[in-house]
Amino acid sequence: MSAEMPTSTERPISPFDLVGLSRQTAGDSGLERELLAMFGVQAGEILVRLNEARNLAARQQQADLAHRLRGSALAVCANEVALEAGLLEAALQTGCDTAQASEHFEALAKAVARAESSLTTLLAA
Question: What sign results for the dihedral spanned by CA atoms 106, 108, 113, 117?
Fold first, then answer.
């Protein structure tokens, strides 16, 4: 993980960087919508699996899922979700305690909820 990773208190204005997403898709709005819809499904599924792994205290599985969610979020420029997933992954890999892991998980869950709320608006347009 990069040493320049911002802290979770440095929140983006919007859950998605739509300009960045447009650059990544060469302005193909149909592709953007498809990627956003896939991200919405995948983010929800990964969050459920993360919570299940958390209940089993399966730290490596949690770190792997957080890493997967971070990559998925970066692909659609969901920067806040990517940030929080990266922070959770790093915390789990460095041996944080259960309370810290829970705080990171909750922050990630909130970021995913904000992204999902934004997706509802974006995909309805």
Answer: positive
DSSP letter at 15 equals S
SS3 track for 86-109: HHHHHHHHCCCCHHHHHHHHHHHH
- pLDDT tens column, 4-57: 444 545 554 689 999 999 999 999 999 999 999 999 999 999 999 999 999 888
**Measured between alpha carbons, how far is 80 from 13 in angstroms, rounded to an integer?**
9
Distance from C-alpha of 39 to C-alpha of 116, rounded to nearest angstrom: 9
* CATH T-level topology, domain 18-124: Four Helix Bundle (Hemerythrin (Met), subunit A) (1.20.120)
Strand, helix or coil for residue 56: coil
